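Homework help board

Subject: predicted structure for assignment chain

Our instructor gave us this sequence and asked us to write out the predicted structure in token form, then describe one feature. I got the tokens but I'm not sure how to describe them. Can anyone check?
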Amino acid sequence: MVILPDDYIGSSCVIKSTSNDLLTMGILHKVKDTYIDINSSRNELPEIPYNMVVKVEIYNAKQGFRVLVGNVYLSTSKIVRIINLTEATNDERRQYFRISSRSKAVILRISHTYTDENGETGELEYLNQNVQLVDISLGGLMFKSDLELGIGDTFDIVIEEMRDSMIYNCTIRRVVPRADNLVGYGSEFMDMTNLQEDLLYKYILKRQNDQLRRIR
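My token output:
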């Protein structure tokens, strides 16, 4: 059982299913040895089934980001109590903290080395390319584009909606054909600073809050 420090009380929380479906958002209200309570002063909380396994993402600017896994013990319109808390690994927490996004982004520069049908190699270089995000997490993002790129290509990208002019360096890790005749490029963030990661936390939380409003 994970026991959180009292300094986390008042932190923003997101509750998701194990398949990453957004269930609700709230504020960490109480921390005890055997459970945590999450409530909301703005909206009624949806009821979550008893004993359901959920993931709780907790954001605190000073104490840091935590992802816990536990069982719902009590769920009402005012409070959710979660027990049997364990902590996700660093790799797992990055995967959990993911949100769909249609934000526009700009790839500042990317080069792609290719081999043609005759075995000759060449290089394509793209500058200031507009792309659209598909999803984003603390570990990386996926964007869709008609650019010809490949696994291992690196690039710098600016996400327009973040409004911080922060440049993120990424490496393409997977290529996914799409039904809309574009290609999805799953990319990993490389060598992020604490400031970059903090801005990502805030951006993803805002996106999740917007999504929750639409669900309601």
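Reply (TA_rk): Your tokens look well-formed. For the description, you could write something like this. Residues 6-96 form a domain with the Thrombin, subunit H fold (CATH 2.40.10.220). That's the kind of observation they're looking for.
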